[in-house]
Amino acid sequence: MSQGRAAAREAAKPQDQGWAWMVLLAAVLLQGLTLGFPSCIGVFFKDLQHEFQASNSETSWFPSIMVAVLHGGGPLCSILVKRFGCRFAVMLGGLLSGVGMVSSSFCKSISQLYLTAGLITGLGSCFSFQAGVTVLGFYFVRWRTLANAMASTGVSLGFTLWPLLSQYLLDEMGWRNTFLIFGGILLNCCVCGAIMRPVQLASASPLHSPKPAEEPERRAEGAQLSNGPCSSHPKFQQQQTRRTACFQLLQKYLAFDIFCQNKGYQIYTIGVTWMMMGFALPHIYLVPYATQNGVEERRAALLISVIGFINIFIRPLTGLLSGLRFFTGRRIYLFSLAVFLCGLSNFICVISAEFRVLIIYCVILSIAMSGVGALTFQVLMDVVEMDRFSSALGLFTVLESIMLLIGPPLTGLLVDITSDFHYVFYNSSFFLISAALFMGLSFCTLEKK
Questions:
Q1: Where does the sequence pass through the membrane (predicted)?
Q2: Which one of 3.60.15.10, 1.20.1250.20, 1.20.1260.10, 3.40.50.300 gives the CATH number of domain 256-448?
Q3: First-to-last CA distance in the chain?
Q4: Alpha-carbon distance 207 to 202, whole Å?
Q5: Cα of 288 vs its chain's centroid, Å
Q6: pLDDT tens-digit readout, 184-242
Q7: pTM
Q8: Which one of 124, 339, 359, 374 is most buried, counting C-beta atoms within 10 A?
Q9: Angle at Cα 116 formed by Cα 110 and Cα 118, nearest 5°?
Q10: Cα(159)–Cα(174) distance, rounded to whole angstroms?
Q11: How many CB atoms lie within 10 A of CB 292?
């Protein structure tokens, strides 16, 4: 009898086995289609400038909005995941991404592009990507570190293939038809979402559904807050109810309570937020920088593909390395080291803009980026409980998105004023190196205390 119950419990747990690996494959494709997609925007930079007679700063708002919304839509994604599950969120995201890019092919001004490709496609990519990351945390326990690293290789595949495909289609069909085709490609996120069936416990309740115990706790909180001398007054009760509801929403979807109480999460969130001011700059400006310095357009697009290709092999190795018992509790230092190397590598571009020098830069940057990409979400899972991960991810990505939104346009404005692309790499190095030192030293101090 006990053997039968044990077998039933084992069958009800899909973690680390069976269908979990199909979900991992879907997550790989999702990350390539969503996080990898913005890597190709630099290929269209000059064409969009010429089409809409826009400056560097005006043109850079388009990828900035896309990437910022991709990272900043976390709270909305959390609501969708908690209410409808990961599968629905991923499929809705794929639909929005496809519609956004198809609409972009008909834009008549750069401001329309901000709405279609920037906001709509960015929001769709956010839903697909973040729900895909969340579902991995439920499907994998023992192999979670490896699963996150393997999933992040999808970003590398995207970095490799998107720029090459973009340059080919741009040469053959122009940017409008290329965006139309991209809309069809991004609809494949819906297929990936269909694979992510809800995880079932032995009690047949989805792992990512809200806990039944939460409701009595909320009532208790509401009773505590409304317990006072004026609690009998109807207006007072209404105000307290609204405040309680707002507090519960913030706690549930933005994890402000974790941010205030968990020092590790606080340090990591601030560090990564600061890092994002400089992290995206090379991906947006590397191709324009290379073409301005005499590199052929096809070869310039190849630079981004080199970064992605090397990442394909380095990210899984980083995941395996960080999964060793020795690094348990120390992954934040690996992450800080990777960010620090990213910052140092940018100085290579300042030395020379020759193609072979830029290839060396891309190789070094790619190795460092593999550590950042493979460890970002794993470190977050290390510092917060898994049942609050979706909420913690929401606040984490909202703060990231603010910096991702303002970083590239401000740097583009600086380039417009000075006509010197070197400031892109100076800025990037400053933010990356300072963020790495802050996180490493802060966690070291926290451990000593």
A1: 21-45, 61-81, 88-106, 112-139, 146-165, 177-196, 267-288, 300-320, 332-352, 358-380, 392-411, 423-446
A2: 1.20.1250.20
A3: 50
A4: 10
A5: 24
A6: 999 999 999 999 887 764 433 344 433 434 444 444 444 443 444 444 555 545 656 66
A7: 0.69
A8: 374
A9: 75
A10: 21
A11: 15
